[in-house]
Amino acid sequence: MACFQPRKSAPAPGQTGQRMDTHDEPYTPVRCHWFYKQIADGKDSWKPFSSEDSQKLEEAHTHGADDEVVVATEGRRYDVRLKERRRHAIYWDQAPSEVRRCSWFHKGNKEVFYTPYTEEMSELLEDSYMISMSLNEWKRNLYLPTGETVILHNPKLMTQHQSFSFDCPPSPSERTQPRTLKRGVENIPVEIPQGEPDIVDHLVFMVHGIGPACDLRLRGIVQCVNEFRSAAHTLIKSHFCTSDENKAVGRVEFLPVNWHRVLHGESTGVDRDMERITLPSISGLRQFANDTVLDLFFYNSATYCQTILDTVASEINHLYYIFLQRNPQFTGAVSVAGHSLGSLILFDLLTNQKTAAESNNAAQDGKYEEQYEALRSLSVSDCSSCESLEEVLKSIGLKEHLKILQREQMDMESLMLCSERDLRDLGIPLGPCKKILNCVNKWKHRSVAHIGKHSSRTEEKDSSVRLIQESRPKTSAVDYQHFDVGIGQVSINYPQLSFHPQAFFAFGSPIGMFLTVRGLKRIDPNYSFPTCSSFYNVFHPLDPVAYRIEPMILPPDVEVAPMLMQHHKGRKRMHLELKEGLTRVGSDLLGSLRTVWQTFSQFPVPALAEGNDMPTAVSTAEEMETSPLEQDEKKIIQVGKLNGGRRIDYVLQEKPIESFNEYLFAIQSHLCYWESEDTALLVLNEIYGNDNCKSPQQ
């Protein structure tokens, strides 16, 4: 391309040039940088890749392979297909975005950011620039295919003008200011993001709460987790700088878990059913309630509670499997975090995970599974009524998708193991996916029925089939009976996670309220999650949805304030320090007045008695000198085993403006966790340890 292989050529027709008096700088090829298009709020914008990702893309482009080249970017969360010039998300559903190799940029008079030219247009501009530099001729006119004209005034000043006819010049109202051109990404005001380390130290799955939007800007879980990840990455650079410089720490990967899309999707049909019974009045408010508040009722429903739990667990396990495939060198731990209702979902899941002792029957179940699969494969192979893959697709009118499945070496046996997401990843539309899965389910039932007909071959085989079928989980109704552990969750077939979490973070969580509504008054201090050793309940002091956990564990006569979280800048907010200072001054003043009053109110007593009472008076004064806040901080409190004896409730420091009107900032406080550096710092401290953390002031 012209960017890297300058070629000498004569001026193009229609180009004019004017030789300048000086010619100091020789021509050097432009340095290209890779960008991708981002669509937000209906507006297009171009974002640069990091320098490391751009270099990887440039190297792959330079090699010029004929086959498709896939380059992993942005912490291996996206794949860029060079020939397609498309950027594909790996862990979540997102439309592919355009990728462009950029070297020339333009900006209008009223625009804020520069927009890159297409690669073809950039080559034309670079060729014209090379000729002007080589011949030292400027004031050149380059007529673009769009009809506009570019004037190269000098190496630093280049403009693009709108086309018009000399016979019919534009009126003053139709005239526009020329667009400014810049050559090279180093000449435009753009912030190139920092690259992410290849080594992942820890993996955190984040589950959202009610509704599709997670903050006041109505962003989804993917955008909010991206911002939380970015904040954590910045905090590692600032608070763990020594370990970061020594390459002792890598990065923490945060992945979003979306269950709202499945619950409100076509598979359940719940939105369609709700639409039929929703009143037409105040449609906006009713639609908002159907999308958000109803999720709380769905979670208390027998059917949809099972759907939500299955979706969250299967999505976490699916993402975990993909992550291990893309990061085979990963040896770190895994944690989970949930916001609002998402924290309650994770709480119920973690409460019902099986320990190693409880999973001793898994090996025996596996033996029965092998016997069942062997019997099923033997019987199905003998079944003359089972159609081939081609016959099945032909019967439902989807034979055009046969080549796609055959390319992946699929048959009816392997198709039985595929999910809807697997078929969608192959490029099959949603409608055909539903038809194929429905047909596969019918085929599966016929196969099992055929096994039943031939199960009388041996009594042993028949008992094996019956035993494995009985051992498989079945969806049960919610009976709201309490388990022996005493945390009061509903009776559901809880799926198992593929890992044991290191920590569980609950943000703005209503867990305490739900446990109380379920009839649980107190959590056993000896209770802990079967597979998770740490639990943090993080909340904003004005969050109307958040509830505490520690009062349900501690004795009723013990009242302890939640732990005040560390500010990411290393100190308390000014208004909190002022409030604490006033409290301390008031306490000292009250103590002094009490001491003076006791001195004047005492009757004369023998000198020996006064001497004996002096230590008591001094000790009383010393006790009064210590503020209640300092006394609380000095207390070492054991809060059960749910967090290994450590504190569970952690409260954020409210902002000064939030203290003026608590009701005004109530809703915002429930959605603040995704943008909170203090929350991200708490997560990093749990992962890396407080000893390695140093505030910027330190």
Automatic annotation (TrEMBL):
Residues 497-689 form the DDHD domain. Coiled coil: none annotated. SMART domains: DDHD (SM01127), SAM (SM00454). Pfam families: DDHD (PF02862), SAM_1 (PF00536), WWE (PF02825), WWE_3 (PF23464). GO terms for cellular component: COPII-coated ER to Golgi transport vesicle. Residues 1-23 are annotated as: Disordered. It comes from the Eukaryota. One of its GO terms (molecular function) is triacylglycerol lipase activity. Belongs to the PA-PLA1 family. This is Phospholipase DDHD2.
